[in-house]
Structure formats: C-alpha cells, structure tokens
Amino acid sequence: MQISLLAFNHLLGQHPQVRAELAAHAGRRVAITLAPVTVSGVVTEAGYLAACQGEPEATVRLSHGVVLSSLSGQPSAMGGVAFDGDGVLASSLAALLSRLHWDAEEDLSRIVGDSAAHRVGRLVRSALGVKGEIGGRLLESWVEHLRDEVPLLARKRDVEQFVAAVDTLRDDSARLQKRLAQLEARLPPPTPTIKSS
Asked: pLDDT tens digits for 89-99?
C-alpha cells in the first residue's frame, strides 16, 4: 500500500464523522490529487480508502493554495479545487476534504504523552498567535516563492494574458480557415486530362 494512502487513512482516522459520511460512498473509486501526489482507492464500508485497480470514478484536484490556506487556518476559496468524472461524487468528496485537519497534538501524544504534547501544542499556538500571524506570513512567503522563484504558481495577470493570447490565436485561426475556404471556392475546377491511346 502506498505511503500517501496510509497517511490519508491516518488523517481520516482522526475524523470519525467524516469517515462515516465517506462510507456512504462505499464501493466507489475516487482520487485526490495535490501535485505531485495522488491518493486513489476504493471507499470501504468503514470510510477509509483501500488500494484498487481501475480508473477513479471521480477525482478532486486541489491547488497548493487551498491546502496552504487550510494549514494556516485561513478560509480557502473553492476556486482552487477542480473536479473530474462524476461531479456529484467529486463535490461530495471535496466537501468532506474541507473538514479534514491534521491533529498533530494527538499524534505527538502517542510519542511523548498527553501532557507534553499539550504543552508543545500550547507553545506552538502561542508562538503563532490566535490568528496564526506568523503562519500567515510564512504562507505568503511560500506562495511568493512558488510563484516567483519556482514557477509552480502563476500570477493571475499572467494567466489572463495567456488565456487572451490563446483566444486571439483561436479567432485568427478560424478567420484564416474561412479565408482559405473562400479562396478555394474561387479556384476554377480542375480540367480533366484526356489520355491518348
């Protein structure tokens, strides 16, 4: 079983209510993609994902911005989520994914105990502040880095210019095809050649 599937199932294990709702889709094949990682499997009756063969019936593609917003505690826009396949299943899966949050304190308590994990969690929360100001600044820096230094994210202005250029090219191509069709219509029909025997 792939590590990403194990990690996703661990996250589901921290959310029994989400798992119960996901179990309503038992037997359906789904995939969640956050490039370059894809978690795919069949929904079990217990609300986990199990490895399976075949193409997913629905795929939810998450942008890095959506995940980073979620991690920083900021509301994420659904514009960073794309669906493929069965739209109803994909939107239901996306709604469930929006409620998943990693409880690091719970995982840490298994290693160092409840008291120490609670103290570390309290220390981290106080360092980040209630609104996660430092986390928000780190998030902004990371997004800026992904956009400027490592071009994984595009600026909205650049995307709009690219889309406009593609639209212009499409329109120019359509006009050229029409013009060629008009010119071909004006050509005289070819004269048949008669072979002498």
From this structure: 888 888 887 77
